């Protein structure tokens, strides 16, 4: 049986250099400006998931990441996410978002996205359970506030016909 070429896992300290090299454009840094934050604290807290690709020589390269913060009451705030390449890899980001929600089982999750970034807004619009809650103005632009709840996800599944409603015909 072949081993999957990708692995979704919590980041390790040894991943930080690869993360800085491979991922340039992120949700919080869509232009890919050189000033990048350090992820060491998120790694120490266990709040950084990565998609690691296995190379032919046995090494790993980081293709995407998601950083979040969990409050004491379990609510999750997605702080940043990104993927390797010039454009966001929506499939990797969505997969990381779904894995984060599965792994942490929060009552709700929130993310703020610049309103003028259609690719990033589309990622959350297409992820089951996320709803556009509103907008806020944060100089110099507006940001969309996306919120996920398990009830909204269940509602989306019912609409998609993936799970049955009581008394509904199939």
Question: What's a concise summary of this model?
Answer:
It contains five helices and seven strands.
Describe the structure.
There is one protein chain. By secondary structure, the protein is α+β, with helices and mostly antiparallel strands. About 30% of the residues lie in helices and about 35% in strands. The protein has helices at about 15-20, 40-45, 90-105, 120-125, 150-160; strands spanning about 5-10, 50-55, 60-70, 75-85, 110-115, 130-140, 140-150. It has a 7-stranded mixed sheet with strand order 1-2-3-4-5-7-6. Strand 6 and strand 7 form a beta hairpin. Helix 3 (about 90-105) packs across helix 4. The radius of gyration is 17 Å and the shape is globular. The mean pLDDT is about 85.
- What general form does the structure show? globular
Largest sheet: 7 strands, mixed
What does the oligomeric state look like here? Answer: single chain
Helix content: 25-40%
Low-confidence stretches: none
Placed side by side, the strands forming the largest sheet appear as 1-2-3-4-5-7-6
Tally of contiguous helical segments: 5
CA(first)-CA(last) distance = 36 Å
Radius of gyration: 17 Å
Assess the beta-strand content as a share of residues.
Answer: 25-35%
Arithmetic mean pLDDT:
87
Structural class: alpha+beta
Total number of beta strands: 7
H and E order: EHHEEEHEHEEH
